[in-house]
Amino acid sequence: MAAGRIGKAKKQHMDRREFLRRASIGAAGVMAGGLGGILPAKGGQRTRGPLLGIAIDNERDYWPILPGQETFVQRMVVRHLEGDPNKIQPIPGSFLAPTLRLTKGDTLRCLMTNNLYDPSIIHWHGVNTSEHNDGLPNHDVDQGGVYNYNFPIGNRAGTYWYHPHPNNFTGFQVYFGMAGSLIVSDSEEQSLPLPRGEFDFPLIIQDKRFDDNNQFLYGVNPFIGTIGDRVLVNGKPDFELSAATRVYRLRLINGSNARLYKLVWSNGLPLHVIGTDGGLLDKPYQKPYVMLGPGQRVELWADFRNLPVGTTLTLKSLEFPGTAVGFGGGQGPHNGSAIDVMKVRIDRNEIESLTLPRTLASFERHDYSQCINADRPRKFAFSFDGGWFVNGHSYQEGQVARNEIVENRTLECWEFVNETGSLAVTHPMHIHGPQFQIYRRSCLPEFRSAWKGVREGYVDEGWRDTVVLMPGERVQLLIKFGPHAGLSLYHCHNLDHEDMGMMRHYKIV
Ligand SMILES: [Cu+2]
Questions:
Q1: Distance 491 CA to ligand 1 centre (A)
Q2: Distance 316 CA to ligand 1 centre (A)
Q3: pTM for the full predicted model
Q4: Above pLDDT 90, what percent of the chain?
Q5: Domains in the chain, please, with CATH?
Q6: Low-confidence stretches of the chain (pLDDT beneath 50)
């Protein structure tokens, strides 16, 4: 579908030909010469550190995933242009985008070219950038359009990711294959005795359904979104990690459209959580299970040293009540049905002497009493009326309501309210820009028994950019805005809810 048919204004963006004309060089020159001389300064942030320059081409493709017929996918094809090429780590054999490994202070430059039929734009999930570089839906470009990014990585060491964020098509594009991890390191993290190299492993978890011809089935249920009946990890079915008797740092990224996971190891191996969306925790936390909502990340310290060679264990998601009665329960896969995520096969003995650090990273705890709205948290209530709404509004490009304007460099309490009665489903709420901290949760009495089945798996001890709300739940979070002023975004990261309008701008002034 051409973007024009959904009535978008694209005045601010050049098409590819215009871009190349202004740059006065041909496409071959872009590849050979790099971006340095041709990226316009406008919109870029001031940058200094080591540079990584990449091109991302959004392409349609066919890929061998299951035995037999190839599957139609959409891909972010990443090419190296400038800087250390080792910072781009492809996943062998996968249609997913490569892992980008950056260091705090690096500059990322990217020229995105959209060769899809639908509009697209790439968002760097969890990375705090200026408005121009964030990949907002109002900046999506049509087929043949380009968009350029140029920004410093100012975030703490952590597991971030990148994926498309156009208005209306995010769910479709992510589901059909557009996702990659973006890992940031810093000096504090490098000083810690944590597993490195091949023992530091990003895992993008996505549930899918295939039809009889090996094609992805994308069917949106307005309440629960698109839920699959099998999991691909890093784009691979029946994923098995071949592991030594060592400690692994597993960086789990929930890249699913809608599914929330309740994660445990099949053999009861302890779940030591060392990081969340915004990087390392202050210390490891042991959880009986871990809840991971769409968009969220957790980092696990997975100690396989006491397992005999030949052991196979499964990372699985347990059954839990994820939706109110009547929506998806009992008919096929639903949000909360049990599903296996991946297997780990211990296939070799190796000696290794790491011990779980008692403390990890230091960071400031936001203080509720310091919020400029401590007496009256800013409230965002969800509702359903054919689509999903926040405070009665659905997404309008560029539109900001009075309650969606905040002041730069102030600390605020935001309250999300998921009290939609019999229509209650889970909503993983994502805020672009700064990472936040969870202050308090509560739940309506009639939903409390279901809530008790998940709440011990919340990892609320560190930095988050996405917070899960179960049916009947209310969450207060503390967020300090800035340093970038301008238009930003908050939305449900159930991508199908997002595409149905559960997304709004907010503005930092
Ligand atoms: Cu939602």
A1: 8
A2: 23
A3: 0.91
A4: 83
A5: 3-186 (2.60.40.420), 197-348 (2.60.40.420), 368-508 (2.60.40.420)
A6: 1-42, 325-330
